[in-house]
Specification:
The longest helix has 27 residues, at 255-281. It is globular and about 60 Å long. β1 (24-29) and β2 (36-43) form a beta hairpin. The protein has two domains: 9-102, Phosphorylase Kinase, domain 1, CATH 3.30.200.20; 114-310, Aminoglycoside 3'-phosphotransferase, Chain: A, domain 2 (Alpha-Beta Complex), CATH 3.90.1200.10. The N and C termini lie far apart (43 Å). It is built from nine helices and nine strands. The protein has a five-stranded antiparallel β-sheet with strand order 1-2-3-5-4, with helices on one face. A two-stranded antiparallel sheet has the order 6-9. By secondary structure, it is of the alpha+beta class. 41% of the residues lie in helices and 16% in strands.
């Protein structure tokens, strides 16, 4: 179970005195946490998720919590942070920054259909449209500046072919200008396990703790790279077309985005390849990240490069 900081019933009952949520009924640890400690909390007023942040600091967290509140108020299906009696979303529990958000129904799906992908594209576009009025800004902590700076430290762990691929792709991305693309608040991690479905509809988008300010198309590329990927490592044309069409119906793509689409698909693969290499080979002392296989995104990047002229196109 991925509960890194233990919270007892007595501790939570005391902490909940800072909230107008009634009395505690149930407390249950969530096994799926990767970087944070999460619990399901039920009170006489409703169902919530308690998160104790093991890595993010109290200074960083308002961007994420306020974004979730902003999106929830705009009708986006996402957890809504719960304010305490001091009218703030963030508190401290057992020495860690902590927050409560509403618990959503539904479950993630591992084998999405084209119809599912269309609904994911639509909700991603709704996030981007609503995020245009979110004033706070945060640079992508794992964007081009980061992967450029960390690449030399990763190269020694790679084969000669892998090292060449990394160097060449970083240089290729550096030569492409994407700063003029439409920008705003992005989720930046909309993988299958971060979308909940209930009765065949999107019931919630969760885990906004990689959100940042960036190119909206980059968020689309990250999403397509996961939701539309076949077992053989190729993008499924039908699912990709459905996701992109669903998105386009809510927020139409621009001409500049069509021109940059291949670049951003490759950038999305590069970002997660470098991140997984970093988490595997260069974890920070005490970091709780569970390292995932970097080879998955290395293969995807190679596939995108090889199929550059046959990749699914924007509507």
């Amino acid at each position: 179970m991925s509960v890194f900081t233990t919270v007892t019933v007595d501790q939570l009952q005391h902490w909940l005195k800072n909230y107008a949520l009634g009395t505690l009924v149930d407390l249950k640890g969530i096994a799926a946490g990767i970087e944070n400690t999460n619990y399901f909390v039920t009170t006489t007023q409703g169902r919530y998720v308690l998160t104790l942040f093991e890595k993010l600091t109290a200074r960083e967290l308002p961007f994420y919590l306020n974004l979730m509140a902003h999106l929830a108020c705009a009708g986006v299906p996402c957890p809504a942070p719960v304010a305490n009696l001091g009218n703030t979303y963030l508190g401290e529990l057992n020495g860690k920054p902590a927050s409560l958000v509403t618990r959503l129904d539904g479950a993630d799906i591992s084998q999405p259909t084209a119809t599912d992908c269309a609904k994911v594209g639509e909700v991603l576009a709704r996030i981007h449209v609503a995020g245009q009025s979110y004033a706070a800004q945060m640079d992508n902590p794992r964007g081009p500046d980061w992967w450029r700076s960390i690449a030399p430290a990763i190269v020694p762990f790679l084969s000669a072919d892998g090292a060449k691929l990394l160097r060449d792709e970083v240089a290729w991305q550096d030569a492409r200008a994407t700063n003029a693309l439409p920008r705003g608040a992005i989720h930046a991690d909309l993988f299958r396990d971060n979308v909940l479905f209930y009765k065949d509809n999107v019931a919630g988008v969760i885990d906004f703790y990689f959100a940042c300010t960036g190119a909206l198309l980059y968020d689309v590329a990250i999403t397509v790279n996961d939701w539309c990927l076949q077992d053989d490592g190729q993008l499924d044309p039908g699912r990709a077309a459905a996701l992109l069409t669903g998105y386009h119906a809510v927020r139409p793509f621009t001409v500049a985005e069509r021109d940059a689409w291949t670049t951003l698909l490759r950038a999305g693969a590069l970002r997660f390849w470098v991140s997984r290499l970093y988490d595997l080979h260069l974890p920070r002392a005490g970091e709780l990240t569970h390292a995932k296989d970097p080879a998955h995104f290395q293969r995807l990047l190679r596939t995108h490069i090889a199929n550059q002229h046959a990749l699914p196109q924007l509507p």
